[in-house]
Every structure is written in structure tokens, then in C-alpha cells.
Design a protein that fits this description.
Layout lengths: L6 H9 L1 H10 L13 H22 L8 H21 L7 H16 L14 H29 L9 H40 L4 H32 L5
């Protein structure tokens, strides 16, 4: 099914099709000279990344110990909240992983919330975006496990508690770990896509009053899905870095 091209996507296809085609060719894919290489989710990601690159400069400009600004207070509360959650889910030392969790939360949240703005849509509605975040999380928690316990210690988590069941448990654990990125992807993608489709349907049926209510619901779901993704990431890190005696 051909997706409706958003105005910002059309703008990128009109002015930056060449660089996009060159990037596609660099990865070994054939790009047609007059094709439209920019998809909606790619265009929305450009906006999100640009905004998140500018946001730290905005926050930094208002940093103050005596009179912190609203943005500073919001991000201080966010980091404090994420550290508290990490300590509760992972245990002692979990706060050191908080910046990864906060990054995932903020990125996913802004991706989700972009769909609230008219003429834009959430890039997390495309499975490629949640999959990318899920794969990055998969690599991160396995890397954290190896760093905390070494390769051998990390592999012991795949062996189970009984040595004679180790070959059987190893196969099951490998499958379980490989399913995790898929589960994270489907959960985020399906919820955001379903929410968008429900919103569109109700706005067509009840154009007066319904949009405001549905935008509020979309905002709530955006926060909820970002939070769930973050908590699941914490759980995976916690299991990866946990010692066998815990």
C-alpha cells in the first residue's frame, strides 16, 4: 500500500533526493534517479534528531543553580526519576545505566508525540524505527552483561542452574533473547499504529470534539509506551548484569 506523502517528506524528496539516493547506493541498494527516496518515517526522524540536537543547547543556555529554568527542572526530574527506577529494577548500581534509559525514553517519547502535531506522524508507526531502537537495546544489555561479568560469566546466564540441562537451556535462552527485540518492536509499533488508526477513524466519524479527546489519549499512550520500553530495557539489563547468587 502506498503511503500518503507528508508535506515535509515531499520537501526533502524535492530538495535532497540526490544525497538520499547516494546513501542508498552506498549500502548496496539500487536507487532510481527519479525515485522518491525519502519515506515519511525517515523525514520525521530528521525532524526528531534535529530537535534533539538543538534541545541540549537550549537547556544549557538556561542552566542556573540559583534560579533553574523550567526545562532544566524537567530534565533534572527526569534523570532523577529514571535513576530511581533503575535502582528499583536493576538493584544497587543500576543508576549508572540511567543515561541510556533516559535517552531511549526521550527519543521514543518525542517520536510518539510528533504524531499529535497536525500534518506530521509518529515515526514509531513504522516497524523499522522501533526495530532499530530494539536492536540497539539488545546490543546494549548484552554489552553491559559482558562488561559486568566477562564473556564467560555472561554466557553462564544462558546455561541454567543445572549443568546437565545446559545444552537444552542454552538453546532456549538464545531463542528467548532473540525474541526480545522482536517483542519490543511489535509492542511499540503496533500500539502506535493502532492508536493512529483509531484516531483517524474517530475524527472522520465525529469531527467536532473528538479530535481534542483523542489527541489527549494519543499523548497518554505516547508516554505510556515510552515508559514501558524503558522499564523492559531496565529489566533486560538487570538480568544481564545480575550475579548467579542473586
Amino acid at each position: 500500500m502506498h503511503e500518503h506523502e507528508l508535506w515535509f517528506t515531499a520537501l526533502l524528496n524535492q530538495n535532497l533526493a540526490g544525497p538520499a539516493n547516494a546513501a542508498i547506493e552506498a549500502f548496496g541498494q539500487h536507487a532510481h534517479e527519479h525515485a522518491k527516496p525519502w519515506t515519511n518515517y525517515n523525514a520525521m526522524l530528521v525532524l526528531i534528531v534535529a530537535f534533539l540536537l538543538v534541545l541540549p543547547w537550549i537547556v544549557r543556555a538556561g542552566l542556573s543553580l540559583a534560579k533553574p529554568g523550567n526545562l532544566q527542572q524537567i530534565f533534572e526530574l527526569l534523570i532523577s526519576f529514571v535513576k530511581t527506577q533503575a535502582e528499583e529494577v536493576i538493584g544497587h548500581g543500576g543508576a549508572k545505566y540511567a543515561y541510556w534509559f533516559a535517552t531511549c525514553f526521550v527519543f521514543i517519547l518525542f517520536c510518539n508525540l510528533l504524531g499529535v502535531i497536525p500534518t506530521f506522524e509518529s515515526p514509531t508507526m513504522s516497524p523499522a524505527v522501533p526495530l532499530g531502537i530494539a536492536v540497539a537495546t539488545f546490543l546494549y544489555y548484552n554489552g553491559a552483561g559482558i562488561k559486568a561479568q566477562g564473556v564467560i560469566g555472561h554466557l553462564k546466564h544462558f546455561m541454567g542452574p543445572v549443568w546437565w540441562l545446559a545444552p537444552f537451556m542454552f538453546a532456549i535462552e538464545i531463542i528467548s533473547h532473540l525474541i526480545r527485540p522482536v517483542s519490543l518492536t511489535i509492542r511499540l509499533f503496533a500500539n502506535m499504529l493502532a492508536g493512529e488508526q483509531v484516531t483517524i477513524a474517530f475524527m472522520q466519524l465525529i469531527p467536532i470534539g473528538a479530535p481534542a479527546i483523542l489527541m489527549g489519549l494519543h499523548t497518554f499512550v505516547s508516554f505510556l509506551q515510552a515508559f514501558i520500553f524503558m522499564i523492559l530495557s531496565m529489566a533486560y539489563v538487570g538480568m544481564a548484569v545480575a550475579h548467579e547468587d542473586h
